[in-house]
Amino acid sequence: MGDWNVGLETLSEVALHKLADMLNNSNCGWRKLAKAVTDQPQFCYRYQRFLFWLCMKSFPLCSEKELTSCSLQVLSAKGSPGRYLLTLLTHSRCSLTFLLKCLRKIEHHEAVNFLTTCGKRTNSPTPVRMHRHSLMVPIEITGHPQSVQVPEGGCVMLSCRAVGPLGLTYQWFKRVEEVPGGNTPELILNSIGPAQEGHYICRVNVGEKWTFSKWAHVRLLHSRAATDKVALLIGNMNYLHHRQLKAPMADVYELTNLLRQLDFKVVSLLDLNWHEMHRAVSEFLLLLGRGVYGLLYYAGHGYENYGNSFMVPIDAPASYTSEHCLWVQDVLQRMQERQTGLNVFLLDMCRKRNLNDNIIQQPGPLKVTANIVFGYATCVDAEAFEVYKDDLSNGIFMSFLKKRLMEQEKVTVVLDRVAEDMGRCELTRGRQALELRSNLSERRALTDPIQAPDCPVMASTRNLQWAIAHVLPESRVLHFDCGVKVQLGFAAEFSNIMIIYTRILKKPKGICCSAQLSDFTEGPETDLKHTNQESLRDAGSLLLSMDDWLPQEQPRLYTRLSALQRLKRDLSFTVCLHYQYSSLDEEVQERQTVTVGKPLVSKLNLHERLLLHTPSSPSASAEFHMHSMPESFAEEMMAELPSLESSMTESTESYDNTQGVFSSSSGAKRNEPEENISPEFLMLKEPIVSKSLSHADADKPFKFSNFHSF
What is the pTM of this model? Predict the structure, then answer.
């Protein structure tokens, strides 16, 4: 009977009212119950008060008959003798067990049956909590604890308010663990640190009846948190007039995977010309904002004159100068205008003097923001190296950086450790040494968490703007008249490189067939060597991995499309089904034209030419910035938040893709600062030279099984 040891206050008003009605009768009612109660000394005084109230309520009547007549004349709940007696018993801490004992003593079978049948299962003498609770006052939480953000070392108070039966008790929990001393409606947490951060909940109970509040999340307000994290990665390899490189592809791919694990929004681009590099930087700047961590990584040819660094596009002439390149310090100045929380430049390029460039650039005054970090792959007037091995290569800088990038340390500490690692390597010592320049005053790290800004619209705008540049076409199935079904699938290797694969889903018996792609829209580069290949490697993709879920017995062909930023209209191509019946020697063809819109970065229309001046001076840089913004698709999106299917009006300007190859007989003097291939590095062992990318499997955004559209 332990379930009955709670007080009468746990009974609901409906149950008390019904019991009072049962006690308000002349045969076996409140009088007999009152006399049975007086057998217990602690209730004698209460019974005398009860009789005095009854006389004052009705008239000065003394006889038994008159008292009974008085009780029958009181019709309201407050005037009910039975109800008043139950109230006195409640105030005297009378338990349900004692009341049941007294009712049995006076043989009030109706009241006993009412209490016991509501507390029993059918054919079971044991009281059951779920039925008895229907008679009890419910516990109602009127004030739930609220989630809060608090600075480290601060104080917070969580509050839970509830109404219900008398004797409510409280117990706070941090997830599933009881909080020591947390048995009051208010929970006070002092000197908040990482150990106190988490989810809290309060349990309110009386007897065996309980309920829980809503969860409250106590979060540390990190002073080093970013409002967002955005990275632009550019790797230039296939130069028209200079030595071609191999490392940028693997370096950009690995850094992309690592930064995505740190919640960076990454835009990764290969082989950009001068115009495309400027447009890409302008779009990158639109992703930045107050408190955003911005990271720019560049791998390719470069040089440095008088403290100014320049990134060389793939279409730079043999005797290039600053007007043919992208000025790093100009990009920094424009990043500061976006009020970023951290500006990181990782420049994996040579820093040799350019003897053809005698212009001394004068950047405008930089703001004192104390949030700038430059990580140079090599020292001033020195070269940066890459390692060739088989089909893949890594730059020396990335070979060491990828091992440290995920460490939860201040970004300058991470780069210092990379420099120390490079200095301990015998083959890099004296040839290439990382140089760090920084005015970073706060302990900011690339691993810092992201906390939403005060303006959620800006965060949503940034998410949508980034997603626009990463829209993949949806997979689709083509039905041919001969009964063959062909599936088209799409994968992003980089933000401007896409893989298309075809595979036969269904074919009638007696047919041998294959589906090949042709007649692509003008703009993207489609090397015939890399179309309709039986393996990703043959298609030119050395980094993507093959999915095991694709049945090996089903034929599939891969096609690699690069330079998607040069796509001026919707991408379309022809799917040609070649098939032959086993009973015939003649091959038959069926064709279908497929249009998939503008995939990936082509949505940003980076091919559009703008009326701008070369940013060779602060005024020219500002003018470039002013002219480039309004024409941008991303700028329109920032103002109007259109859907992902929105597109910008096609420019009437055409992109002049001047093809050419370097000739040693060129009359112009050729620039000297280029990344060299050191024969000594060809003999290096792991880990500096590695064909296997150790971090490539940590995040697998490019596997075919993970294809999806944003």
Answer: 0.61
